[in-house]
Amino acid sequence: MELEQCINFILTKAQLSVHHLFKAELLPFGVTPGQYGVLKCLWDENGQTVKQLAERLFLDSSTVTGILDRMENRGLIEKKADPKDRRALQVLLTEKGRELEAPVTQAISNANRKAVREMDEIQSDTLKQLLHKLNPGD
To answer: Which of 7, 48, 91, 111 makes the best surface tag, with the fewest CB within 10 Å?
Structure first.
């Protein structure tokens, strides 16, 4: 099999392209694609634990902890002991983190449009459906 026909190669190349696109759209807000994932989770449900965020984002806890530390240093989130489990940390948005919701959501929408700009709506929907089929349980 030619390298260019290998599913892993094709997906990796596409993911890098999309990642660079999202990174560029988020740059004016000082947010990385990983930080966007955390912000989106917290905009949907503020006060999640590190473990909950890691599970939702399909990342290990140590990776999420690094992302959270950088976000906390920028004043986007704060970490507190979870009142339900003192061993766990609850992650809460700050006002600065909440204020990013509208502009960053627009930037993500723009990035999504740009990522599929060469496709019509049916092709874009089909791509998403096919990619979901690669993920067991979706």
So the answer is: 7
